[in-house]
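Re: [help] complex structure
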Amino acid sequence: MRLPAQPGEWIDRTTPLGFRFEGRDYTGFAGDTVASALAAAGVSMLGRSFKYHRPRGLLSAANHDVNAMMQWGGMPNLRADATPLAAGMDLEAVNTFGTLERDAGSMLGHLSRFLPVGFYYKAFHGKRLFPLWEKMFRAMTGLGKVDFSAPRQRTPKRYGFCDVLVVGGGTSGLAAALSAAEQGAQVALVDENARLGGSTQGASELVGKVLAHPRIRVFTDTYAAGYYADHWVPLVERERITKMRARAVVVAAGAFEQPAVFRNNDLPGVMLASGAARLIRRHAVQPAGRIVLLAANADAYQALADFIRAGIEVAAVVDLRGTLPSEQRALPAAHDIPLFAGHCILEALPSSDGRRVAGVKIAPLGQTQAIAELACDGVFMSVGWAPAAALLYQAGTKMRYDAGIEQFVPEKLPDGVFACGRVNGVHTFASRLLDGERAGSAAAAHCGLGGAKPIAVPTETDSPTHPWPIVPHPEGKNFIDFDEDLQLSDLENAIQEGFDNIELMKRYSTVGMGPSQGKHSNMNALRVLARATGATPGEVGTTTARPFFHPVPMSHLAGRGFTPERRTPMHALHEAAGAVWMPAGAWQRPEYYAIHGLTREACIEGEALAVRQGVGLIDVGTLGKLEIRGPQAAEFLERVYVSKYAGLKTGMTRYAVMCDEAGVVIDDGVIARLADDHFYFTTTTSGAAAVYRELSRWNTLWKMDCGIVNLTGAMAAMNLAGPKAKQVLTGLTDVDLSLPFLAVREGNVCGVPARLMRAGFVGEWGVEIHVPAEHGARVWQALMQAGQAHGIRPFGVEAQRLLRLEKGHIIIGQDTDGLTTPGEAGLDWAVKMDKPFFVGQRSLAIIASKPRPRQLVGFMLPADHAGPAPQECHLVIDNGDIAGRVTSIAWSPALQRHIGMAYVKPGMDAAGSTFAIRLSDKTLVSAEVAKTPFYDPDNLRQKEEA
Amino acid sequence: MSAINIADVSRTPRAGVKGAGAAAWLAALGLPVPDAPNTWLSIEGGLIARLGLAEFLVEGPASAKLAAPPAHGVYPVLRQDTALVAAGERLDELLAEICSVDFQALGPAAQPVVLTTMAGVTVVAIPAEESGMPALRLWCDSTWGAWFCQTLAEVAGELIQPIPTNHQGATS
Amino acid sequence: MPWRLLRFALSKKHPEPRMFTRHDRLKPAYDVVIIGGGGHGLAAAYYLAREHGITNVCVLEKGYIGGGNTGRNTTIIRSNYLTPEGVQFYDESVRLWQDLAQDFDLNLFYSNRGHYTLAHTDAALRTSRWRAEVNKHFGIDSEVVGPEVVKKAAPMIDLSCGGHAPILGALYHAPGAVARHDAVAWGYGRGADMRGVEIHQRTEVLGIGVVGGKVAGVRTNRGNIATNKVLCAVAGATPRILDMVGIRSPIYIHPLQAMVSEPVKPWLDPILVSGSLHVYISQSARGELVMGASLDPYEVQSTRSTFDFPESLSAHMLDMFPFLSNVKVMRQWAGMADMTPDFAPIMGRTPVEGFYLDGGWGTWGFKATPVCGKTMAYTVANDREHTLITGFGLDRFRNFALTGEKGAASVGH
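Output below.
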């Protein structure tokens, strides 16, 4: 029922909003939550419980009411008590079979005695039927539904910075924020509610001051998702995440009011007093007409005042304490409300349709016979608190159990982390103000702003929390965990079965594992375990608190999801030439250039043919390019590569193989000597960053007289190759093109400073041309232009793969794997073991003393081979055993047969011998070991002199 | 001045050098050398920035001096950057979306050079001022440049013209 | 029909006894001391008792049973490894998994879902074929499939992965499964306990006595034990225990994180792993999406959570499944992965006589729980390596006989 205007209410009565719930139309106001609007409309049942499908209503109105989760179209798992009402909402309760009203799942409630804690472990595991049972379980356990057509949401994240981050805008948080700001701190104040002020009244003046303060930035409708190292706290707002880096953090997160445990404490209408008070104050909703208040602390009586003011009839106050302070007794007395001190609620009684509470049975504490039955349509509970200490735990705070106030409090806080208010064990209003002021001041002082004020905060005289608000009942249904439908007996049974420490009990019973992650259940569960094992709550301890404080949408976590891309300077030219792109790490490379009317294979073959017969041009700019200078440059290279370079003549290049300490080949490239103390060398595309990092690391350790520069992005590189290549280049460069095979020259190409290296990777006369990136496109274009007359074709990665295979050149990572040593890959010739030292040398010496496990060989299929050809990684089979695998294979247009490389067992590698390759369909194909290069075995074409 | 303005100044001449001998070599060439790592100094028509301990970026006409033959312990670094000037009232909002550095806290007076990443791309950043507005000089490897500029434009564009978010994007 | 649930209704008192006996004190001596009460240690104890009749065994657990990586992993079981040693080993594990629930009389929710390792590059497709061929050679059901098969198994997937990592195919492994990880520890624990093994929780090993190169005893925070056989089956703490007996290993430890979503109605049946995006996902019987990625890229002996983990994992997940934008992540956690240079475990005897090692389980330990227990039990009982684990000896690092699993444990799950 809606009340008349309440002072400071959050609803805007001038803006009514229509919405649907379970097929019925309702109206609420702007400023309502879904739950408050439904409560105003008199709807008690908001959902069904997870296991037994019992009717459930609002419990906390503090964002852990998992039983009031709803689905709106493609949005699953909206929490009714924390979701603002919007016009046109069309909501359904999650996890019902049928409708909320007629939920077929409610039959499970009748089966409850067959379904004790862990019941699903005790049965259903028959092999034949398990798949069926699993299907059933899966259908019954999920909550909301995923909508495959929902579009991707990109909610950009941002970074934020402040001196002092205050988590929680209640009484102590407000005081802390002001106190820190007054000392000069830039403060960020965060509260998950729509407005500041927390759960207590009397903070409005503070709120005003905070909102007006120039150094306080307020984030409402925002929660701190977790605490990460160095005061890194993600703030989850409605539309985005702000990743806040603070210099000090004040946790003023308050406490979760805890439910009492008695039979049928889950009936709609049974709720936390603070939740009821929030409904009244914020949303002008009267949650019930006639209530019984279950009390055990001062907060209960403050709430009682609210209830009376809201016109709620109070049938009785049942207080678990035998004696209470006179000022608390006075309030019910003044209103002729019966007070039952030292009593408890034995059970709540359902209405005839079971949809709401209709009364309670009460008894003196410890007795099982009811002494009275009271009619009511609401039970409000105020029996205690559990600190919202997740962030403190995550920050590494050591907590201790304070028996005086029956809650865990911080014992040792890490540097820069402060706590105040209820989470710090301070509950009285005036004390919370002081505690906040103290913590805010200390936080500012930690940032070097002012001094920490020495404020003494009085300890609580009365415990705000009852140590045992739990009443057993032979017929059960006294719930501890509302998310997971766990009763008191479930936990007792788990303990009986040997799950008698806090983590095991949690994992076996699933207490605290539901979406609210134990906010209203962990403390009571802990108390049960303590009592059952004769330990104190402090000895029992808590389970690990992990992020997130509330579940965070994946869209918010993902943000934009930046995926940087890298392009060579000739990218646009490739695009214009019809390049079909393939990703190579972050780079894009042309796989081949598409020609209208031709298949991919035909295009690739055409490109390869052009290189063999005319001239081709390939962009190799993604290769790593490094430069090393200094008196010890050659020595350095000799330490990190397996070959010798001290004697390499200036103006010449040499192939380079790099091994790791285990002697495994990890990279290769070409080293060019530009001067005595100056080398320019390449790495593979995927190895560039790692090699540069590793070489830098080595030099930091060795401190040699040389320096390494990474020019990978700074240099464009292209390979012009083919019998006509020299002609194309003539006239475009001042470099003497009679340079010998493997030579390197510095000069100009198209008027631009360039390094030219005569290379042999694809097996034709060719030069690799390296120019500064800014000139790459121009040089490429000039070469293509000059090459028109010679039928020049750009060629891509696939054509290059084929061409190099015809020459038997290996590709690191394709023809080598995570264990290949140089000898296995036919690179023994490059390894100079007589050097004083190189990375991997020691390992290679050990390996050399053992039989080689395998050998990479070239092979060919018979020229008349018909049928499918093997693919890369098909296995070599010898006598029914695995004897190796194919690493590269392709149809060679030059040789008109399939060629490839494969690992085989030693002894199988004699040229001319055959071996069997097994295809995926188990057929065997015969292959013949062949010497490489397959094409132009004497390398005449690539070495050709002018 | 618009809310966010990004200008491409990649063509401005620049050169780099690193090594234990670099500082002395630059001084011998007549250039002022920033003492502290990650700081910069103004020079005629440009700047000289110290990147970390022993690497330097020189921009402007003076960069031509770095073509001199290197001395011992001096390693020339070919610079082929995509260089940008980002400025505007809302620059800070743009930066807040792509970079974890608190530029406000740096105080341009100390002339800091920041080596960091933005939107996942490694950048050198120098906070400055342009006509009283916050501004930032940025350099990144030109192979990342196209994607980086495109992304900056996208993020800036959305800031100025927010894409209407689906009202169903609630956090509860 | 689950008839056995009837007894819960028929008796007033909960009719279930303790699964794990509580022992007030340690005996002065045991035939075998197992350090580590996770899945591996408890499984070894179980098979020692069941297959070898060795019951004078104690399992010493520093915390609570299953509290280490057994309780933190993402529960994926498969045998699609790269090397013959690996394949045969994990295949035997999968075989044992089939009957485990029956052996324990405990439901492990062992659910055969099918496992797809998505390939986004040529190189990945190649490695997929390599694994498939080796698997098939040993009779294991793995095959390389094209993107259309992936689409059929998960019709809601975005094959282009947000446009920057298109799926070219996948290694499909039909036996891929998930299970309830905690229950495996409980099942082995109860089974061992029933047969006389003593499980001592909150018992920390402080030292191991070695005399003349042989194990002589174990020193704990609850007293000393004399024994000639010690099996070390801890993760994260392996280097510390090895220190106690003066053994070196090449184990290096990296954190491994995981996260879980709120429960939603079932929509994902298979287990999906992406090598390029370095992410994987499955949906548990509770409806939660269990997600993980690769190791944190640095050596840290810690189970701390970082924020960049759920950030980048979510971004990649939305590349594959854009409609998950509104699904919420409930919780993230971390464990420690004992990595080895060849991504294969270290099992068997050590230079110290009577000291057996079961470690180096990196990101591949949970699925091996049954075969690990069985083979280590055999090894401890006979002081001789079981044939299935001869490729995993500690000495292979000195002898350069590495088992190259690096290709198969790409994201390692």
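Chain C touches chain B through one residue (CB under 8 Å).
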